[in-house]
């Protein structure tokens, strides 16, 4: 793998268009491919996020007991966590935690339209 390739993460989503809208309008991703309702992928920096709808091969290959959104999450670094919280709250984005501080910085969890977690992190 060359160093200029993107890292990809696959999220199973209930509605590909809603997921594309969320990640592009709320979190600054851009659309790479969109063949909704089955699949789309969006990119932000070196991350390629694969959004697999119920009709996609990724979703069909997933055993039912593992099909729900899980505890895994993508991790996005932000410059100003408080400003992001204010902006996303105004946009109606659901928060899944309160902001917490640790030795490395501050973070908060939000949910995408399918319940997948996204961590917003501001380094110390």
Automatic annotation (TrEMBL):
Q: Its GO biological process terms?
A: L-methylmalonyl-CoA metabolic process
Q: What superkingdom does the record give?
A: Bacteria
Does the keyword field hold tRNA processing?
A: no
Query: What keywords appear on the UniProt entry?
Result: Metal-binding
Limits of the VOC domain? 5-123
Any GO MF annotation of the entry:
methylmalonyl-CoA epimerase activity
Q: What is this protein called?
A: Glyoxalase/bleomycin resistance protein/dioxygenase
What is the scientific name of the source organism? Pseudonocardia dioxanivorans (strain ATCC 55486 / DSM 44775 / JCM 13855 / CB1190)
């Amino acid at each position: 793998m060359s160093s200029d390739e993107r890292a990809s993460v696959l999220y199973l989503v209930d509605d590909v268009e809603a997921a594309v809208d969320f990640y592009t309008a709320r979190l600054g991703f851009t659309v790479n491919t969109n063949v909704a309702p089955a699949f789309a992928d969006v990119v932000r920096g070196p991350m390629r996020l694969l959004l697999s709808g119920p009709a996609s091969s990724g979703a069909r290959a997933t055993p039912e007991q593992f099909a729900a959104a899980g505890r895994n999450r993508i991790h996005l670094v932000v410059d100003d966590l408080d400003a992001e919280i204010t902006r996303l709250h105004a946009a109606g984005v659901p928060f899944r935690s309160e902001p917490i501080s640790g030795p490395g910085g501050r973070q908060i969890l939000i949910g995408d339209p399918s319940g997948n977690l996204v961590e917003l992190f501001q380094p110390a």
